[in-house]
Write a structure and sequence with these properties.
Elements: E1 12-20, E2 25-34, E3 39-43, H1 50-57, E4 65-70, E5 73-74, H2 79-84, E6 86-89, H3 101-111, H4 116-129, H5 145-157, E7 163-167, H6 175-192, E8 195-200, E9 211-216, E10 219-225, H7 226-230, H8 235-246
The protein binds adenosine-5'-triphosphate (ATP).
Protein name: ATP-binding cassette domain-containing protein
Organism: Salipiger mangrovisoli
GO molecular function: ATP binding
């Protein structure tokens, strides 16, 4: 995790961000940055503010204070250009269950202004990336939870984003599918060279070499490489201690 430099802006920069739904703030002076092509886990218990932060990153909500940079672009100043660099997987599934995997991707491609051969090529590439080519014709309703999530990740990558945001993408999955999706996205980060920002409340989804931001009650309690944040103790114990201490 590095501070921004003039030559290489971070994939994601969050600076002094504050936000609340009413009088009370649910994000307070949140600051961190993620270097390009890194996997960063946003780890926080229920109610920490993870989904609220995602709402700000995707401009579904506006901050009270602070700034968000995407690949060197200011999200408030150049929202279209900044958003076009992002792929997003929300916590709640947004697949049309009555459409096939391919049709779900085609529909989304059209929304992104992608048609014809270009769209077909991108869809095939996205299906291959997520190991879904043999399920292209299957209705989303007939997929298991893990394959539905993979379809959403494939869809989020179709327009070639530099930054992939995932809000608790393994919620509701069985342990095997959860481990598989977590592994898959870590691999994508390496092979595709994209920056990944992954929200979770589950410590076992964080690899020792990942960047890590621990969020609790709207505040950043720790940030850095996960192994360094953990030190010589298991990350789970450090996380539980930190969140209990600040409660
Ligand atoms: N629409 C809303 N109106 C008012 N308060 C809200 C709203 N959405 C969230 N909150 C509150 O904001 C705080 C942060 O919630 P948020 O959903 O961002 O946390 P989270 O880390 O994503 O939690 P979870 O893992 O449970 O989804 C919580 O106290 C929550 O009750």
């Amino acid at each position: 995790m590095t501070e921004p430099t003039a030559s290489a802006p971070p994939g994601l920069a969050v600076e002094h961000l504050s936000f609340g739904y009413g009088a009370e703030l649910v994000l307070r002076d949140v600051t961190f940055s993620v270097e390009k092509r890194r996997f960063c886990a946003l780890l926080g218990p229920n109610g920490a503010g993870k989904t609220s932060l995602f709402a700000l990153l995707t401009r579904l909500a506006m901050p009270r204070a602070g700034r968000i940079g995407i690949d060197g672009l200011d999200l408030a100043g150049a929202p279209r250009a900044a958003l076009s660099r992002m792929g997003i997987v929300f916590q709640q599934s947004t697949l049309d269950l009555d459409l096939s995997v391919r049709s779900n991707l085609s529909y989304y491609a059209a929304l992104r202004g992608l048609y014809g051969r270009d769209a077909a090529r991108r869809i095939d590439a996205a299906l291959d990336r997520l190991g879904l080519r043999d399920r292209a014709g299957v209705k989303a309703r007939e997929l298991n939870g893990g394959h539905r999530r993979r379809t959403e990740i494939a869809r989020a990558l179709m327009h070639g984003p530099q930054l992939l945001l995932l809000d608790e993408p393994t919620v509701g999955l069985d342990p095997e599918s959860r481990a598989e999706i977590t592994r898959h996205v870590h691999a994508l980060c390496e092979t595709e060279g994209i920056t990944v920002f992954w929200a979770t409340h589950l410590v076992d989804e964080v690899a020792p070499g990942d960047d890590l931001v621990i969020l609790h009650q709207g505040r950043v309690l720790a940030r850095g490489v996960a192994a360094e944040v953990a030190g010589d103790r298991p990350l789970e114990a450090v996380f539980l201690d930190m969140t209990a201490r600040s409660a």
